[in-house]
Amino acid sequence: MTHLPPIRGEHLSTALFLAADGVPALPLRAGKVPFGNCPACEKNACGGRPNMKTPGPCACPKPCHGWAAATTDPDVLTSPAWARAWREAAAVAYHPGGAGWTVVDLDNAEAIAWARETLPATRTVPTTRGEHWIYQGIMPSRNAVRPDVDIKSSMQYARWLGPGAGTMTALPDVVRGLVVKTPAVVRPAAGAVPAPAGGGKCPHRTPAYLARGIAMAEQRITEAASAVHATVFSAFLAVLSTHGRCGCLTQAHTERLFAAAQAKGESPRHCADAWANALTRLGM
């Protein structure tokens, strides 16, 4: 039987470009979804590929098993077993975790505005509805970590939409914290406000950087039209993730944040709880 030659079209060329840069790539079919398992691998009857949730010895040469099919091997990408997939491909995807990256998938303008207020700047890629913010580092993937925000890193794929703009920065704690379930509230004594331990290296270039961060958090709380509890916690988390480890936050700063929250109807106890939970989530 004569095999069809590999298809060297636009999508395959993109995949080879990614692979050469150490980014595992795979084809996507219409609907931005991976090609399904072949009959021999249906429902992971083969045991699954390595690194799947059900690892096994599957050596299927076809682009099976979703994100786990992503590869940097040009011989696999151009093999006859992948030729049909490239003929039918509608797009190219990559495995962020396999490249050592995490993608914060922002689905609309509101999510982008949240990211600009909360997350450190990094490489950004425009998408159909929003943006991908790409950080250097790996973490668990999870959808809907907040409204219209998904995390794509380990055991997940993301559509390749170009190299984007900006310099990729290290994965921050505030992003890692998005997939951590909020711990049970440990209520401090009434009026007590746990303080960060401090002692870390101060990253602030000028005092204005800290002042701007506090002002942005105050504004975010003040402008909250709904979900005030969640907004207060998120604002506290953002401030602590950026400014909490170097000891620059003072009692005056926390009093400003608490005052903004209480003006929106939060009680002093709720403010203390949210601050304590933010510290706990960040391991501080």
Question: Can you offer a commentary on this structure?
Answer:
It is built from nine helices and nine strands. With 284 residues, it is α+β, with helices and mostly antiparallel strands. The protein has three domains: 10-92, no CATH class; 98-171, no CATH class; 207-281, no CATH class. Strands 5-6-4-8-7 form a five-stranded antiparallel beta sheet. Strands 2-1-3-9 form a four-stranded antiparallel beta sheet. The chain is elongated.
In total, the number of strands is 9
The rounded distance between the terminal residues' Cα atoms is 64 Å
Strand content: 5-15%
Shape: elongated
| Main sheet strand line-up | 5-6-4-8-7
Per DSSP, the total helix count is 9
In terms of structural class, how would the helical and strand content be classed? Answer: alpha+beta
Largest sheet: 5 strands, antiparallel
